[in-house]
Specification:
Helix content: 10-25%
Strand content: 25-35%
Radius of gyration: 30 Å
Number of strands: 29
Largest sheet: 11 strands, mixed
Structural class: alpha+beta
Oligomer: single chain
Length: 503
């Protein structure tokens, strides 16, 4: 049983003392002294040895590429200022959480082992912020208890030993933003920063923001395949249909959702509509006024989700003697893929969890929010690791082939588990951008769909759907393939891209 904890990722600074950390000596490198009466300092040898059988070992490649994975011992400092010689020693323990060590000293053939066992711990800090609209008195929900979040990372039974400490004297409120999307991330960060109060723990602190909708828009072209007629001036429109319903769908007939009901300013300016054009069979093009294009049809969800527009052709110039035919072409903003449950800014100490999706007024459940939060925090600390040489070589090969590489090689990360997918290789994203774990799930290259039962919080979606319509939800904890990686993580905030830069 360890009786001394050492938080190896935090520097020896007073701001990190407290909440179970008794002094600066318990931070960063392990410091100890040896006193002896007759031994010669030069002949006195000190070593750190593993205690027990539960220590996790780094691979040779891991030990070679990153100093934080190795036991490092600076030169011994000898003090002879007193009648009793004294040796002062610093030991940088490997980053792996849950590993235990003892100090062993040797002089001549006599070996003395300390009675104290040292256990490796890591710690990070976080502050919870939630959006709030003071006019509408509309609070965005958040996890009422963060115990599931903290327990997933400390996980004493698995020896993760990553303490997540909430700071900030209560949950903070920030300006309500209906949807975080393509063009308002700067506004979101600025407003979150106003509420953030724990920057004194930088670079070992993260802001956790509970938001409303998270979604992006993308421009989309609709070419209506139905021929429409424009009557001559000799006829009244009464004999012809002057309004037409156009489905917002791709060439395969798959419906797309109009970007409406997600940003009030966008709705006021009819942001969803770029342009509308009537293209005659002879190639002539006529601009359809924006006011002649309106959203129609039933909404799919309680707060929105429209897939049709109504187009009036009354203002298309008519020929005097003859009618003519053509098609309607639209350029619109649509929902880009779907709603996001949450995201972790790759290079900033900021996480957000979306509590609503699909224009629904019912917020996510606590279990859904917890799974998303644990997943995004996993990314923040370096999951899923891909630091091994095999991935570095694949990275280099792609560059030589002139192909883009989504993620840079990160030597400070542990080796990748066998279940890794979607990371920097750029060839196996499988629908999920970034490093993820496919434990228990299966990807169909032909359909681009996942099935099976995800077995790890680091799966790239919150659920899969089997062909029979069964939903398999992603757990909120790490799988057996990722557990060793979590233990090995070096949580030095000056190295991790998700911590070292302030949002």
């Amino acid at each position: 049983m360890a009786n001394l904890k050492q938080w190896v990722n935090l520097p020896k600074e007073s701001r990190y003392v407290g909440d179970g950390i008794s002094s600066e000596e318990r931070l960063d490198f392990l410091y100890f002294k040896h006193k002896f009466k007759t031994a010669k300092p030069a002949s006195f040898k000190v070593s750190i040895v593993p205690s027990g059988s539960g220590n996790i070992k780094y691979s040779k490649e891991e030990l070679k590429r990153h100093a934080g994975f190795r036991l490092r011992k600076p030169p011994v400092q000898v003090s002879t200022s007193t009648s009793t010689p004294k040796v002062e020693q610093e030991m940088f323990l490997p980053a792996a959480g849950g590993n235990t060590y003892k100090v062993k000293a040797k002089y001549n053939n006599k070996v003395v082992e300390s009675t104290t066992t040292v256990e490796v711990w890591r710690r990070l800090y976080y502050e919870v912020i939630s959006m709030y609209d003071p006019i509408k008195q509309y609070p965005v929900p958040y996890l009422s208890s963060m115990s599931g979040f903290e327990n997933a990372f400390v996980n004493s039974s698995k020896k993760f030993n990553i303490e997540l400490k909430e700071k900030g004297n209560g949950r903070k409120k920030m300006k309500f933003i209906k949807t975080i999307h393509n063009t308002n991330h700067a506004e979101f960060r600025d407003e979150a920063r106003k509420a953030y109060t724990i920057d004194s723990y930088y670079p070992y602190a993260v802001a956790v923001v509970f938001s409303n909708f998270l979604a992006d828009y993308v421009d989309f072209e609709v070419i209506d395949t139905v021929s429409r007629s424009i009557p001559s001036k000799l006829f009244h429109w009464g004999a012809y249909a002057d309004e037409f319903v156009v489905n917002i769908a791709d060439i395969y007939g798959r419906s797309k959702y109009i970007w409406e009901g997600l940003d009030d300013d966008h709705d006021k300016t009819k942001f969803w509509l770029f342009s509308a054009t009537f293209v005659a069979k002879d190639g002539r093009q006529y601009t359809i006024p924006k006011d002649d294009v309106t959203i129609t049809g039933a909404k799919t969800y309680s707060l929105g989700g429209y897939k049709q527009v109504k187009v009036s052709l009354k203002n298309i110039p008519r020929q005097f003697f003859s009618s003519f035919e053509g098609t309607i072409q639209l350029k619109v903003n649509i929902l880009d893929g779907g709603f996001t449950g949450g995201f972790s800014y790759t290079n900033l100490n900021l996480i957000t969890v979306g509590t609503l999706s699909w224009w629904d007024s019912t917020p996510s459940t606590n279990s859904e929010m917890l799974q998303t939060l644990n997943h995004e925090m996993g990314h923040k600390v370096g999951m899923v690791g891909y630091g091994d040489k095999d991935h570095r070589k694949k990275n280099e090969k792609l560059r030589k082939q002139g192909k883009s590489v989504s993620f840079e090689f990160r030597p400070e990360l542990p080796d990748a588990p066998k279940t890794l997918y979607g990371e920097h290789r750029g060839v196996n994203n499988q629908g999920h951008l970034g490093p993820h774990c496919g434990k228990g799930a299966k990807f169909n290259n032909n359909t681009g769909e996942w099935s099976g039962k995800p077995g790890c919080v680091m799966f790239g979606s919150n659920a899969t759907e089997d062909p029979v319509g069964t939903y398999n939800f992603t757990p909120a904890t790490f799988c057996d393939q990722c557990e060793p990686v979590v233990r090995k993580l070096d949580l030095n905030g000056t190295l991790l891209s998700g911590l070292k830069k302030r949002f």
